[in-house]
Design a protein that fits this description.
The structure holds two protein chains of two kinds.
Chain A (H helix, E strand, L loop, with lengths): L1 H41 L1 H7 L2 H4 L3 E2 L4 E2 L2 H32 L2 H16 L2 H28 L14 H25 L3 H9 L4 H11 L1 H17 L2 H6 L17 H8 L6 H36 L3
Antiparallel strand pairs in A: 1-2
Helix pairs in contact in A: 1-13, 2-13, 4-7, 4-10, 4-12, 5-7, 6-7, 7-10, 8-9, 10-13, 12-13
Chain B lengths: L1 H34 L5 E5 L4 H15 L3 E4 L3 H9 L5 E4 L5 H7 L1 E15 L10 E2 L1 H9 L8 H6 L11 E5 L4 H13 L1 H6 L13 E4 L1 H11 L3 E6 H6 L3 E2 L1 E3 L5 E2 L3 H9 L25 E9 L1 E2 L2 H17 L1 H6 L3 E2 L2 H14 L1 E2 L9
Parallel strand pairs in B: 1-2, 1-3, 5-10, 6-7, 6-8, 13-15
Antiparallel strand pairs in B: 3-12, 4-8, 4-9, 4-12, 4-14, 10-11
The chains are: A mainly alpha, B alpha/beta.
Chain lengths: 311, 364
């Protein structure tokens, strides 16, 4: 009798706990749905007026109330690509150094230093980028690129220190600690026996690293997407150095714009309903971009699981 | 052992709680005395006059104990907030038209006046030595003049040794009253600009390589960093950063320097009496001394006030600013509203701001 009673309370508390977790998980879905609904409702004006034109036209004219997202979208994508191209290989090397090459004391020191980098607020990166890094770019880096490339289309325009490339580099510095610290965790979780067998079979350090990369590929992809998500959504630092111009240029030195920078700059003073609605539609666009990236990352992970045979 | 430490911790906690309670009660008592007279006055809006509003509010609170909470969320936000009646007054750099005011039941009046100054970064060129005609300024921003050694510039400034440098224009990235004033001026003096670009707090800048900085400080820093750059900032920023400004030809044909006196001249020559709802833009004003890119910042209030006493204390604050705030304004490089204009404004207060029973709020 007593046992039965205990059981029933147990099952009751189990049910309660299940309900609690269900509500918790459900809240996330509800929140997401609410965000989408709110974004769509508030950007209705702009969606109705511009339709799909919004995605591929490059007009941003608050006076005539004509809006198109292409320049902001382009800026977000290109600056993120630059950041990833710089940050991913660098993080890989940093993580490998910390896990495999460095003596423990140094490894610990650098590990803490990298995590400190992640704790710096983005506005600090922005100010630093504008006041210290951009002048350096204008004085040394940009003239150098211009000289060696012979004024290639990628490096045209006056060396102003700001623009797409500077924004990409600042972003790379910002996401570097995220990617490298996750990769470090991934590499340190590779079982010693795997490494030992590689070395035992006569592998060089480089070949052993290849084995480790293969072992930790899933975690590494995760690390890359953490960095990517952060780079796409970064606002303040980019706003300071990207140049904030609604123009699409092939030159990496030219001022550009990103979705988040446009929002941060223009939201406060956008009084006209159409202007406001176009800005909110930009936010909606960013939402979908992140969603698509999530889907791609999931698909990629699944593919990797199949082809590389990791579980 | 553990029990004694626990006991010590507990007493410490108790003492803390009692202390903090005592402290907060002291505070609320003090606050109670102060706020007995009037609740807090809330305002929101333009960023351009924020430094002077902040100073005025600080001084006024010291004198009277009335707290003014001004949030510089931007002119657009200010207009939206006052329309939604969440604040006692809104502030905007761009005036609303008479129709807009009537539609929302608002009254507007100018509070301070300031100047927008074109600044350049040209090495080896002395401060304030370059002269611009309005057409040159418009053509630079339209992308028609692209080099500093352009013959038109050389012809007007035979003494200036222009470098052979490309011109980079700098504008505001954020929507701004400064941009509104600047583009309004360009629209007035260049039909081409008016047709192609128009004016507003943010516009579609026609030049391909035009950089945008966030806030006055963003524009100032880009101009300082980029050789051959030209931008426009509030006068105070040009002054504080010791930037190289240009002389501009005004409506009367004189080349004037951006100084307090020339802003004052523009404000004095403005015909406020015949501007319905004080919708008056101070750009391109007549007068031998007038600086052509001058603008006023406005306060917005509702015409019908539910709480008469509260509305009155809001107006009392503005009254104090007009009467005794001039020195503070000048210290921060703003131009106070001329006394004769304030007489006009006071009359409008009497005639237009009413409490719900139809009696004027301002009955002094």
């Amino acid at each position: 009798m007593r046992i039965l009673q205990e059981r029933s309370t147990q099952s009751r508390s189990d049910g309660f706990f299940r309900l609690l977790t269900l509500i918790g998980a459900g809240i996330i879905l509800v929140l997401m749905a609410l965000i989408v609904i709110e974004l769509v409702l508030n950007s209705r004006l702009s969606i109705e007026k511009f339709g799909f034109r919004f995605l591929y036209t490059n007009i941003w004219d608050p006076v005539r109330q004509e809006f198109g997202a292409l320049s902001s979208f382009y800026g977000t994508i290109i600056s993120t690509i630059i950041a990833m191209v710089i940050a991913v290989p660098l993080s890989l090397v940093i993580a490998l150094f910390l896990v495999e090459m460095a003596p423990p004391a140094i490894s610990r020191f650098f590990g803490i230093a990298i995590e400190l980098l992640a704790a710096i607020p983005s506005i600090i990166y922005g100010m630093w980028g504008l006041f210290i890094f951009a002048p350096l770019m204008a004085k040394y880096v940009q003239p150098f690129f211009k000289n060696i490339s012979g004024n290639l289309f990628l490096f045209q325009g006056p060396p102003m220190g700001i623009g797409m490339l500077t924004a990409g580099i600042i972003l790379a510095i910002m996401i570097l600690p995220y990617i490298s610290s996750v990769m470090r965790e991934v590499f340190s979780m590779v079982p010693a026996v795997v490494k030992e067998s590689a070395v035992g079979m006569g592998a060089t350090t480089w070949e052993m690293v290849k084995v480790m990369v293969r072992y930790g590929i899933q975690g590494m992809i995760g690390a890359i997407f953490i960095g990517l998500g952060r780079a796409i959504g970064e606002t303040m630092a980019v706003t300071f150095v990207i140049g904030n111009s609604h123009v699409i240029s092939t030159s990496l030195f030219a001022p550009a714009n990103s979705i988040t920078a446009s929002l941060a700059n223009e939201f406060a003073e956008a009084a006209e309903p159409m202007y406001l609605s176009a800005l909110i539609e930009l936010g909606l666009l960013l939402f979908f971009v992140t969603l698509i990236i999530q889907i791609i990352s999931q698909l990629w992970l699944r593919r990797v699981q199949k082809t590389m045979g990791v579980q | 052992m553990t029990r004694t430490t626990f006991r010590i911790a507990f007493t410490a906690l108790l003492v803390l709680v009692v202390l903090s309670l005592a402290l907060t009660s002291c505070k609320s008592e003090k606050g109670g005395v102060k706020t007995k007279k009037v609740e807090m006055i809330n305002g929101a809006g333009a960023t351009f006059p924020y430094p002077i509003y902040g100073q005025w509010a600080y001084k006024y609170e010291k004198l009277t104990g009335i707290k003014i909470n001004y949030q510089s969320i931007g002119s657009g936000g200010g207009v939206a907030q006052i329309k939604a009646k969440t604040v006692d007054f809104g502030a905007s750099d761009a005036p609303l038209t008479k129709e807009e005011l009537d539609q929302a039941g608002l009254i507007q009046f100018p509070m301070v006046i300031g100047g927008v100054v074109p600044v350049v970064n040209l090495q080896g060129v002395a401060e304030g030595s370059i002269k611009f005609t309005p057409q040159i300024l418009a053509d630079i921003y339209l992308g028609k003049i692209n080099k500093w050694n352009d013959p038109i510039l050389k012809k007007l400034n035979p003494d200036v040794n222009f470098p052979e440098e490309a011109i980079t224009t700098v504008h505001r990235a954020d929507g701004s009253g400064t941009t509104w004033i600047f583009t309004n001026y360009l629209s007035k003096i260049s039909p081409d600009w008016k047709e192609k670009v128009g004016f507003g707090k943010a516009v579609a800048w026609p030049r391909a390589n035009s950089v945008a900085g966030k806030g006055n400080e963003g524009v100032a820093s880009f101009v300082r960093n980029v050789n051959g750059a030209i931008g426009y900032v509030e006068y105070a920023y040009a002054l504080q950063n010791k930037m190289n400004y240009v002389q501009l030809q005004n409506k009367d044909g004189n080349f004037v320097k951006p100084v307090i006196e020339s802003f004052q001249a523009a404000a004095a020559n403005a015909d406020w009496a015949n501007a319905p709802g004080y919708y008056l833009v101070l750009t391109n004003q007549p007068g031998a001394m007038s600086w052509p890119i001058t603008g006023a910042s406005f306060i917005l209030m509702h015409k019908i006030q539910k709480k008469k006493e509260h509305a009155k204390s809001v107006l009392e604050f503005f009254d104090w600013c007009y009467r005794f705030g001039s020195e503070l304004a000048k210290n921060l490089h703003y131009v106070p509203v001329p006394a004769k204009v304030y007489t006009l404004i006071e009359t409008s207060w009497k005639n237009e701001i009413k409490s719900t029973d139809g009696k004027p709020v301002w009955d002094k």
